[in-house]
Structures are given as structure tokens and as C-alpha cells.
Design a protein that fits this description.
Structural class: alpha/beta
GO molecular function: glucosamine-6-phosphate deaminase activity; identical protein binding
Strand content: 15-25%
GO biological process, one term: N-acetylneuraminate catabolic process
EC number: 3.5.99.6
GO cellular component, one term: cytoplasm
Number of helices: 8
Distance between the termini: 10 Å
CATH topology: Rossmann fold
Active site: 67, 136, 138, 143
CATH class: Alpha Beta
Strand order of the largest sheet: 1-10-9-6-2-3-5
């Protein structure tokens, strides 16, 4: 696993955006898996700036969702489809036709999960999947003790995750859905490159368990250790519990443009 320690969230966003831009230059129709929440916003802002400046042509790129709430009405501003369209697809100048996501409003949710896994495979697979990490080590909405071989499925959110996400619903936890569709860990591991961004001291324990702890379902993100090309980008605060932090700093300090990413 590659671990890159950056000064702050902005630097992490720029680093990852350049990796995504480089991928799109090599493969114009790349399928980019995106995550929601506040952590990846610097990535999307930096990538949109590159597109606006003509540094990369993303017009043929495709976007896919990591997860989606179950039961929110179509068009709800906090559905993850709406968030991705607003924060990624529109700023990059893409059409909605470039976007793939699970149907959280489907009557048969299990069928919708299976259909999404099939659609990802038929699209040629995800080239680069962005990930965040929860304070409990979850990725996507694969909560602790999720199967490391799990596929896209419906999950019940833990109380802590609903508390964490209430800030997107005017601070009202009662508005946060109880269920989500999420790519399973097995589905996530099929992407060609996994890139996890974590910032802030609150993520330090989860990052340390992910990078330096054993692979265990109690820390779902630790499954990234099994992937042949996984990159973890952390700021100094999120890296504060890493025993090998100095090693990681030394390893990447002299790589032009962070070539390891």
C-alpha cells in the first residue's frame, strides 16, 4: 500500500486530482468512481480547475457512484446522485449520461444492487475509485464486520454514521435515512486503483488501523491491504498515529509529481 503524507487537505486534493487528470489523459473514457462527503471536495475543485484551464479534457470521462441512500425521493438535494451531479458532473462539464449509480428509490432494492454490480462490469470496470474513511474504519457504507467479499447491497447505517451525516440534513438526525445501497468491499476491490483520502485528527486511529493493523472485517478499510494498487493520502493530522510516518515521508519526499500515485 502506498501512503502519501501531505501538508493539508488542499495539497491532498491537488495531488489526487492530478492523478485523475493523468489517468484521463491516458484513457479519455476512464470510469472514475467518486465518493461523497466533505473530504473529497478539494479533489473535485482541483480537477474542475484543471478542466477549466484546459489542462485536461474530461469530456469523455465517465462517473460512477460508491453508494446511495435508500428511500429519498428522486431529486432530493442530499441524495448522493444529486450531490455527485452538483459537485462532480456539472463542474467537469459532463452530461448526466456519463453518470452511473444505483437506484435508491427502486421497489426491489436487491435487484437494483445486482443490476448496479452488473452495470459496472459491463462498463469495463472502475479505473480509479475514490474512497473516504469513517471514524470507525468503514469505507463506502461497509460498516465494521462487513464481509470482505461483499457485493453491492443494502446496509443499515449505524447510529454513529447517522450522527456523522446529520450535518448534511440541517443537523437533524431524524431526516437521515436508515438504509443505503453501497458497493460491497469485494466490489470496491475490483477497481484498478483505489485512492483513499483522509484528513483531520479524528481519522487518525482509523488510518493507523487501516494501514498498519491486521486485515480484519472490524476495520473494513484494512481490506485495501489486499489490493495490488491502493494509495492512502493523509494530512499530518490524520497521519499522527502512524508508527511508520517518518518512513512514509522519506519514501515519497523526492518523487517528482508524486509518481508513486
Amino acid at each position: 500500500m502506498e501512503v502519501v503524507i501531505v501538508p493539508d487537505a488542499k495539497a491532498g486534493g491537488e495531488l489526487i486530482a492530478e492523478a485523475m487528470a493523468a489517468l484521463v489523459r491516458r484513457k479519455p473514457d476512464a470510469l472514475l468512481g467518486v465518493a461523497t462527503g466533505s473530504t473529497p471536495l478539494p479533489i473535485y475543485e482541483a480537477l474542475a480547475a484543471k478542466v477549466a484551464a484546459g489542462a485536461v479534457d474530461a469530456s469523455r470521462a465517465r462517473i460512477c457512484q460508491l453508494d446511495e441512500y435508500v428511500g429519498l425521493p428522486v431529486g432530493h438535494p442530499e441524495s448522493y446522485r444529486s450531490v455527485v451531479l452538483r459537485e462532480v458532473v456539472e463542474p467537469l462539464g459532463l452530461s448526466e449520461a456519463s453518470f452511473m449509480g444505483p437506484d435508491g428509490s427502486a421497489e426491489d432494492v436487491q435487484a437494483a444492487c445486482e443490476a448496479y454490480d452488473k452495470a459496472l462490469a459491463e462498463a469495463g470496470g472502475v479505473d480509479l475509485q475514490l474512497l473516504g474513511i469513517g471514524t470507525d474504519g468503514h469505507i463506502g457504507f461497509n460498516e465494521p464486520c462487513s464481509s470482505l467479499a461483499s457485493r453491492t447491497r443494502i446496509k443499515t447505517l449505524t447510529e454513529q454514521t447517522r450522527v456523522d451525516n446529520a450535518r448534511f440534513f440541517d443537523g437533524d438526525i431524524e431526516q437521515v435515512p436508515h438504509h443505503v445501497i453501497t458497493q460491497g468491499i469485494g466490489t470496491i476491490l475490483e477497481a484498478r486503483h483505489l485512492v483513499l483520502l483522509a484528513t483531520g485528527e479524528g481519522k487518525a486511529d482509523a488510518v493507523a488501523a487501516t494501514v498498519e493493523g491486521p486485515v480484519a472485517s472490524v476495520v473494513p478499510a484494512s481490506a485495501l491491504q489486499l489490493h495490488p494498487h491502493a494509495t492512502v493520502v493523509v494530512d499530518e493530522a490524520a497521519a499522527s498515529k502512524l508508527k511508520l510516518a517518518d518512513y512514509f515521508r522519506h519514501t515519497y519526499a523526492n518523487k517528482p509529481s508524486w509518481q508513486g500515485l
